[in-house]
Amino acid sequence: MYRLALLVIMMITSNLNAQTESKYETGMLKAFSLWEEQKTEEAVNLFERISSAENENWLPSYYAAQVLILDGFTKLQDSEKLDAQLKRAQNFINDAKTNSKENVEILVMQALLHTVYVASDGAKYGMTLAPKVAQLYEQAYKLDSKNPRVVLNRAEWNIGSARYFGQDTKPFCNEFNKALELFVNFKPESKFHPNWGKERAEQMIKSCN
Asked: Where would one find the signal peptide in this protein (predicted)?
């Protein structure tokens, strides 16, 4: 009787977990679909709701931040709106950090957020944030030098800095080839884990050539 009761409990728990996972997957796929349709605010709001329900999962907050950060590159001329958007993105990054310590994907996203600020006003943010960006990429590289997004974005930041200071960019071009090789062999932990960047690596290789 005890074993039967235990089996029933296990079956119920399994079904509940499957339902929760299905709801999570449905929500994430919907959020990605909204993002693809360039419905930025709707996508961010949905990722935020998923994050509230999945309060130990760093991925929804990570993607909410990414949507806002990448969209920020299109709003470089509107400093007030951009600042509000990036502050919101920073809150999502902070949430993601609480659920995943020393995560190189989150470090890259933090570096990209600072990069948007620098791109919007180099005179205002360059002196304070440029060193932080470089530091974040070096920290991420030390943690995981085989992560393709770490190698790609670190190289892109370094090549931009080299061009700014009139230095040779060829060594960083070789890094893009390395990143592309890593992308070919990279396998994300799940279908929702970060897997972006391969097309950007290919673009940067063409740019170097």
From this structure: 1-18
CATH of domain 21-118: 1.25.40
Provide the 8-state DSSP code for 58.
Answer: S
Domain-by-domain residue ranges, the chain? 21-118, 145-209
Predicted structure pTM score = 0.88
> Residue 54 phi/psi, 5° resolution?
-105, 65
Cα–Cα distance between 205 and 152 in angstroms, integer? 11
